[in-house]
Specification:
Chain lengths: 388, 581
């Protein structure tokens, strides 16, 4: 208690720590994202809407809103949020349930709620809500987490939310991300490795069985497979399914492959001109590769590595477990999405809609990611400089 | 406190583990990027380019067909193809109005194409260049006028069946045009333009052009002067004799070059799909119309067979002399008929020719003489000569659709069949086969391949390919050949072929009159085969008149045709030879 007081006093004396490196990396990614959203969307937006900056303006609006929210959150001591653990969980559930009567559809999926002029993708809220909820839960459990009961409680408490995201909004990717965030936070807060090793094996085994089942079924009757099964087949041989399920993947591969080492130059992508549908969304990384080449693609990966490294530093120097877990949650969220997105775009895993954090077009995503960064900045403020 | 520190330690190490694993995965993905963007780059770049580029082909100018004098028989003229690009049209109504007006098409027809959502839609091809230029001068957005070549035949109907014509894509359909397609067509060029997914051209990407390579000019042995004159003669004969059709073949018996190939009625190469005069195309079904067109395009000189009749006695005589079955001085007696087994075969002269030697028998075209010679040769020997002379094979002329010989199987030939074969009946050959076989008998015994194409020369004249054709030596001995020339000269000088004689020239030849099947129909084929000079044949002509009205004897109606032809072309060829040397 004395220590905490001391640290607070330290902050008041102007020793407050603002992690400018993190801020810089995030702002760079947001800015770069806007450039790429404009580049990848302007041609089609001009053709279809007669307004080449439509997507850019919406992204800019969401980003400004997000940055303001980030700065506000960064200046609120993070323990303020501890009391909102249960409301965050319940709020997420309610928002998802609201989709049923009030949901707004786009591209065949119902994932958005309209609040005034702003559309909100509820899954993005749920991810933040889960980070807040689990951080508190794990702190409350204390040593109890080492028991199997505690372990399962942390692992399974997000399951209903993930299931609802999957069933109600038909969004498998977000459901997986919510579970992955939970698993990572649990991993960091438990001292052992064995259970996670087992968990990993189970996940791998299930994946292998699903793939095996899909391939077997495909040989017998293709028609029995739903679109996810078809996506697995398209992943194994995208060119054989290039007219339907493999279409997006193939177009992304054309974009990436044709970029070569140096790329075609900013704005010079051909694939964005109607070949790769909605290039500004989940597949934006392929346009980055096409225009900026291997160097551009690797540079983006390096920026994300720096971001993750920076978040690790903050997590490991957080004043307490709650702060550390908040940052680990945010780090997990970003890392999982980056890895899955690039893996999908390069056809390393089957196609599933995951956006690239800060860069892909999508207001809710950018806004809530920035709020999460605000949380980590707030945690970073609690770090005593002498610890570094 | 200790506990808390302990917590912190494993939290830290586990966070580091997470970051380490993430880093590993991101490095793995970076490796995947390197694989895709360095090692697979070429493959995907190619695939992407195929996807982005639209290919418009530029037609190559088709090679010309040029006669022995350098006169162009088949040429190209520039025409235009008018197309619209849907996405680039700004004023659809004006486009529809202008195009339907200028191209003489209905508004509905044009509207349907203008409003069709496609990357490029052809409105009309083979538009006159002048009309194309007019349309271009309107400078309408989304209207493309591409220049193109269309085959053009300056002499319309001349040598139509030999030259052939081309189809809508300028590909050969019949005649030389189809046989020498590979040489004539050239290589189409391409314009590659980069387009977006809807086919809208991306101007800033520019276009890539691969220039077309023009086809090779085909130099043929046809001589436009001989061809024109022969055509004129054939037409005249057809009209005066009210014949069904008349064929005239003129060739060089020494090397097989065809100088003229006439089969009237010919058709207009510039309008090959127009039925002959007096036929209304709309009156026929599609199938019937095609049948009529095929009949119109048919080249009687090579596509049809007929019973050669007495001109075939040249072959029997050559076989008899070569085998030693007969000598020129052998004597025969013709009572007006001959008994072969139980059959009485008549001579065309009812009272008979009486006593005559073999030369006289040939001059008289006496059937009993040739039947006797044929029987002396015997079935097996006769058949082997038939084969040796090349009569069982096609001549190999460089025109499509040559018909084969229709002949008995050897085991089915009895004395009666042999007797009829001996004077040219009961089997069928093509006119070109007869002319070629006669050529090889009188040229010293070399079986030549009849042909039209002499050489193919690239458009810039730098590369010339001469065609060579097989020649088979010793078909008959030089001695037999010389005897045959002597006998056939006698036929024209004093025998049945005297109407083929030309003053001042030594002509050899043989007449024929054959009744068409079924016998008794009253339809005849009159023909005459002549060559000159008789002692060293440089030109051989075969005239065949199908179903003449009135007089139908070859010696009376076909021989004069060849005579008139020779009267004109022999001095011409001499002069040409003189000029050449």
């Amino acid at each position: 208690m004395a220590q905490r007081n001391a640290s607070r006093r330290g902050q008041k004396k102007g020793e407050s720590f603002m992690d400018y490196s993190l801020l810089f990396i995030v702002l760079f990614l947001v800015g770069f994202g806007m450039v790429m959203v404009f580049s990848s969307s302007s041609y089609e937006a001009n053709l279809k809407l007669g307004d080449s900056t439509r997507y850019l303006r919406q992204q800019l609006f969401a980003s400004i809103l997000g940055i303001v929210a980030m700065m506000v959150v960064a200046n609120i001591p993070y323990h303020f949020w501890e009391r909102f653990a249960v409301p965050a969980y319940i709020g997420s559930v309610v928002l998802i349930l609201l989709i049923i009567p009030f949901g707004y559809s786009s591209g065949g999926a119902t994932r958005w709620l309209y609040i005034g002029p702003i559309s909100l993708q509820v899954a993005e809220v749920a991810k933040l809500g889960m980070i807040l909820f689990l951080s508190s839960l794990i702190c409350t459990l204390g040593k109890g987490i080492r028991t199997n009961k505690g372990f399962l409680l942390v692992l399974l408490s997000p399951a209903p939310v993930a299931a609802m995201i999957y069933i109600i909004t038909n969004n498998l990717s977000s459901a997986i991300i919510v579970m992955a965030i939970a698993a990572l936070m649990l991993f960091v807060s438990c001292p052992d490795y064995k259970r996670f090793f087992l968990l990993g094996l189970i996940v791998l085994a299930v994946a292998a069985i699903v793939i095996f089942y899909v391939v077997q079924t495909a040989e017998a009757h293709v028609d029995d497979l739903d679109f996810r099964g078809a996506r697995i087949l398209a992943w194994l041989d995208p060119e054989a399914y290039s007219d339907d399920t493999g279409f997006q993947t193939i177009q992304a591969l054309y974009a990436i492959g044709s970029g070569g080492v140096l790329g075609k130059g900013l704005g010079q992508s051909m694939q964005k001109r109607g070949f790769l549908p909605e290039a500004q969304n989940d597949m934006i990384f392929s346009i980055i590769c096409e225009e900026l080449g291997l160097f551009g693609g690797i540079a983006v990966i390096v920026m994300f590595l720096l971001l993750i490294w920076r978040l690790m530093i903050i997590a490991n120097n957080a004043p307490d477990l709650y702060g550390a877990l908040l940052v680990v949650g945010v780090m997990g969220h970003i890392a999982v999405q980056v890895i899955l997105n690039i893996a999908v775009v390069t056809n390393t895993i089957p196609n599933t809609g995951i956006s690239l954090p800060f860069i892909s077009y999508g207001g809710s995503s950018v806004m809530f990611l920035l709020i999460e960064i605000g949380l980590t900045l707030s945690v970073a403020k609690g770090i005593r400089l002498k610890d570094l | 406190m200790d506990d808390k520190m302990n917590h912190k330690t494993y939290h830290r190490s586990k966070t580091v583990t997470v970051v380490f694993l993430c880093t590993l995965m991101l490095l793995g993905l970076a490796g995947r990027l390197v694989y895709l963007m360095v090692f697979q780059s070429e493959y995907y770049t190619l695939k992407a380019r195929e996807l982005h580029e639209r290919e418009r082909s530029i037609k190559a100018a088709r090679g010309r067909i040029i006669d022995a004098n350098g006169k162009i028989l088949a040429d190209n003229k520039t025409v235009c193809t008018v197309s619209v690009i849907h996405s680039q049209i700004t004023d659809a109504e004006e486009v529809i109005a202008v195009l339907s007006e200028e191209l003489g098409l209905s508004q509905d027809y044009v509207r349907k194409r203008v409003e069709k959502y496609s990357s490029i839609e052809k409105i009309k091809s083979n538009v006159d260049k002048a009309v194309g230029d007019t349309i271009r001068s309107y400078a309408l957005d989304g209207v493309k006028v591409d220049e193109d070549y269309k085959r053009y035949y300056p002499y319309d109907t001349l040598a139509s069946k030999a030259l052939g014509f081309t189809g809508g894509d300028n590909q050969g359909i019949i005649g030389l045009e189809v046989v020498y397609e590979e040489y004539l067509k050239g290589e189409a060029g391409t314009i590659l333009t980069v387009t977006d997914a809807k086919g809208v051209e991306q101007d800033e990407e520019g276009e890539e052009r691969v220039e077309p390579v023009s086809g090779r000019d085909l130099y043929v042995s046809l001589d436009i002067n001989i061809q024109s004159y022969a055509t004129q003669l054939a037409k005249q004969t057809m009209e005066t004799k009210e014949a069904d059709h008349v064929s005239i073949l003129v060739m060089n018996p020494q090397n097989g070059e065809i100088l003229a190939m006439v089969d009237v009625p010919e058709f207009d190469l510039n309008n090959p799909y127009t039925l002959p005069d007096g036929m209304d195309a709309s009156a026929f079904s599609e199938e019937k119309r095609q049948e009529l067109l095929n009949a119109m395009w048919r080249n009687g000189c090579i596509n049809d067979t007929y019973e050669p009749g007495s001109t075939f006695k040249i072959v029997t005589a050559a076989a008899g002399l070569e085998s030693g079955a007969v000598k020129p001085e052998d004597t025969f007696n013709c009572p007006g008929f001959i008994m072969v087994e139980d059959r009485k075969i008549r001579c065309h002269k009812v009272g008979g020719h009486g006593a005559e030697n073999f030369v006289q028998g040939t001059m008289n075209s006496c059937n009993p003489v040739f039947i006797t010679v044929g029987l002396r040769i015997g079935v097996e020997r006769y058949y082997s000569y038939f084969r040796q002379f090349g009569l069982l094979d096609k001549t190999g002329i460089d025109l499509p659709g040559e018909a084969g010989t229709i002949m008995h199987k050897m085991e089915n030939i009895g004395p009666v069949e042999l007797a009829t074969i001996s004077f040219g009946q009961s089997f069928q050959i093509t006119p070109i086969q007869l002319a070629t076989t006669a050529s090889s008998i009188v040229n010293g015994g070399r079986r030549i391949t009849p042909h039209l194409a002499v050489r193919a020369v690239s458009a810039d004249g730098t590369d010339s390919k001469s065609f060579t054709y097989p020649v088979r030596e010793d078909v008959v001995s030089a001695e037999t050949s010389e005897t045959m020339r002597y006998i056939l000269e006698q036929v024209v000088a004093e025998g049945s072929g005297k109407n083929g004689a030309v003053e001042g020239y030594r002509i050899g030849g043989k007449t024929a009159t054959s009744q068409t099947l079924p016998r008794g129909s009253g339809k005849y084929i009159a023909s005459f085969l002549g060559f000159a000079p008789a002692d060293d044949p440089q030109v051989l002509a075969l005239a065949i008149i199908h179903n003449p009205k009135g007089t139908y004897y070859g010696g009376q109606i076909a021989a004069p045709v060849v005579r008139q032809l020779f009267e004109n072309i022999l001095p011409y060829l001499e002069k040409k030879d003189y000029n050449r040397t």
